[in-house]
Structure formats: structure tokens, C-alpha cells
Amino acid sequence: MEQITLSYPATRTLYGRALAGVVGSGDMEALFVADQGERLEVSITTSIVNFEARWRALFDRLSTLTELPAGQLTIHDFGATPGVARIRIEQVFEEAANA
């Protein structure tokens, strides 16, 4: 297992918490807890070694396409494709926005 930590400037504020995906499903789960800070702190546990560049590229792209919320995002990845990873991340932010 590999641990990856990323940090991005937050451009919006949410107030909820949310969970998207299921670890046992064979891809990934994302847990988000909003806070009033100025950064999105991302903690990733992945079963795939040497995937930090992939995760960094995904969040770099997300940060240019959408407003990232302030808070803590915890990801448990078990081999999700980049498309599934992006869907889970967008789902968890949407759910937190509606909490």
C-alpha cells in the first residue's frame, strides 16, 4: 500500500460531509469532510505503487475544471481507473454540497 498526500487551494466552501463508492466494490471510496479553511487536503491510500503522478495529474486537471472545496478528502483506492476516480470525487463533492 502506498500513501499519497496532496494539497490544493480551495475555491469554494461546503458545509457537509459525504461518502461515495465502496472499497469492497473493487475500485475506490472517497470520504469528504468540509471545513472553513483555504485548502483541500487529499490523503490517498492506494494498492498500486508509484501512482502519485497519476493522482497529481487527476487533481491538477480537476482544479482547472471545477472549484475545489475546502476540507479533507480521504481516498481508499484499489485500482480504480482515472474515469472512475474522477466520478467518485465529483460524487462526494456533490453529496457534501447537498448535505
Q: Which properties best describe this structure?
A:
99 residues, 30% helix, 2 helices, globular, five-stranded mixed beta sheet, cytoplasm, alpha+beta
SSE topology sketch:
Blueprint: E1 2-9, E2 17-21, E3 28-34, E4 39-46, H1 52-65, E5 71-77, H2 82-97
Parallel strand pairs: 4-5
Antiparallel strand pairs: 1-4, 2-3, 3-5
- Helix % is 25-40%
- Low-pLDDT parts are none
- Sheet with the most strands? 5 strands, mixed
- Indicate the structural class: alpha+beta
User: Overall 3D geometry?
Assistant: globular
Question: Oligomerization state of this entry?
Answer: single chain
How many domains is the backbone divided into? 1
Terminal residue distance: 32 Å
Strand line-up of the largest beta sheet: 1-4-5-3-2
Report the sheet-strand fraction: 35-45%
* Average pLDDT number: 92
Would you count the extended β strands for me?
Answer: 5
Helix-strand pattern: EEEEHEH
How large, in whole angstroms, is the Cα Rg? Answer: 12 Å
Enumerate how many helices there are, as a single number.
2
Keywords: Cytoplasm, Phosphoprotein
Protein name: Malonate decarboxylase acyl carrier protein
Function: Subunit of malonate decarboxylase, it is an acyl carrier protein to which acetyl and malonyl thioester residues are bound via a 2'-(5''-phosphoribosyl)-3'-dephospho-CoA prosthetic group and turn over during the catalytic mechanism.
GO cellular component, one term: cytoplasm
Structure description:
This protein has 2 helices and 5 strands; from the N terminus they run E-E-E-E-H-E-H. With 99 residues, it is an alpha+beta fold. It has one domain (2-97). 28% of the residues are buried. The mean pLDDT is 92.
